[in-house]
# Entry
Amino acid sequence: MLYQNSIGGILVSFFAATMLVFAFDNSNLASFKYAWWAVMVVVIIIRFIDSTWWRIKQKGQEYDGRRAILRFITGTFATAIMWCVYCLGVYSTADTVELASTIIIVAAMAGGAASVLAAHKKTAMAYSFILLVPFSIALLLSNDDYRQVLGVLGISFGLVMSISAKKAAEFTSQAIRLKNENALLVQHMEAQVEKRTRKIYELSNLDPLTGLFNRTAFLNHLKSTLNTCIEKHQPMALLFIDLDGFKKINDTIGHDAGDQILTQTALRLKEHCEDQQLLCRWGGDEFLIALPNTQQSAAVAQAKTLIDFISEAYLFDNAQLSLGATIGISLYPQHADNELKLIQLADMAMYHQKKRAISTSGVFSKELGSMLTREQFLKDGLARALENKELSLCFQPIMASDNSEICAFEALLRWKKDEEHISPVEFIPIAEQHGLIRKIGTWVLNRSCIVAASWPKPIAVSVNVSVSQLQADDFINIVEEALLASGLKPTLLHLEITESVFSFDKDIMIDRIKILQSRGIKVSIDDFGTEYSSLSVMQDLAVNTVKIDRSFISRLDSSGLAIVKAVINIAHAFDYLVVAEGVETKEQAIALQKLGVHFSQGFYFSKPIIEQDVVSFIKKPCLKLAQQSASITS
# Structure
């Protein structure tokens, strides 16, 4: 502030000095005045150079403030002393007009200094004192009344100016202090605003756990990057990453371990992603990476690298945890030119690859898209199939091998949608996978019991039961309610289960089978020998019937014969009944009867019969069995 006001004061001093020296003709003081003026000009030039140097070189830069103030004060005092010398040098010989003009000019300069030098209190007060007090004292000591009056006025004005300078300096000092405090306050507020802005940005753009971009921010960057690739005619790959085995770790060890794995995975992905804006945590244990200007081969190689890196051991509480990653890949322009569609297709590719081979990568294709679209169509249709009355039952007879008796019918589910007959091989796995099988299975069980109860003579009905149905805590109650509602005797209900149920919790499954059997319900193992280690649980199963899978029956004249014999011998040892599935020829039927199979089922006897035709089939004798018995006898 001192330097900012200095040039004006310097110029005032120059013009005032020039006017006093050259305006009054005083031959007695001419040499003194000229010499004084020359010295004053030198002082003014030095001060002007110093002030100009500060404005050009040092203003706005860091510099030694104490030395700058000292330079300024030195120049100010030099000017004040020069004025004091002038006043003391001319007061004795100057006339009344010159003295009055001098004291007026000096008083004016003292008054101006009170505000110009207000930034430094001592300098402002001393400047006014040096300019007026010595000159005024000299005038008071004069014998001339007029000079004495001027001296009194000068001393009085000098004291008033010193006091004014003091107050002005204090006011200026307080103003500067308040300004600095306000500047610090504004700076603090700006820092807080910046901190809050950064926090808001993090909350709206970053995943709080991993620090990666969230969906919203990633989609914005992905859209911009994709548009750039479109403009430049460059390819792009999108990787959809899903961790394998994460849920098990999260559920068994705890969420702290899960969070640490996600955090460590994010750090590993950052190391392999050049642009952090194109990496995000999509949700749960899913991550996305966009690779601009990347062809399919490079994307597949990058995916393999990421899988290997993610699959390295994770540390948690001094223990090593292992998991993998499955990656789906979609490409621009081959698959889509929209960021949301690319993500959807990469997700579909990952989902499909996870079913085929976990911890590998797969690229989306049109064939895969058609398959997944079909699967989604079937899933959506199954969810409404019961309400739309699209499901129905067929019944395939199970025949006794030694006579013409029908011992049971197996209930087979059929689905007709929009005039299309959809195979159970296609829709049953989808129902199981998407949690629809329990609802559908309950309907099949209830409907089968109602139909069987309406037959003209007591014939058992065999109903397939899925793993998820048997796992349900209320399954026993569902079975009992179906029997109660239909009026079917429990002994006429056979439940068919697959060996895979024993791969979950064998003890629980066996206990439930025993409960069902205690009610009089019969239990069969379907497709025996094709899944879970059959022989290891044979002694604990306590089932009533074993059904030999059709794959062995079809190879009865080759490798299947040995397996069929082995199954029959084991079943007989445990006193189980044996049913052969997929009997399609007379030769197979005769051979199976000779081997000791109790019951046969297959197209040789009958294809599945619609519900309305079962009664007529029951009333009609089976000639094939009669012919078969005659052939064996002969």
Q: What stands out?
A: Residues 1-5 have pLDDT under 50 and may be disordered. Residues 491 and 520 are 5 Å apart (CA to CA). The longest strand covers residues 406-417.
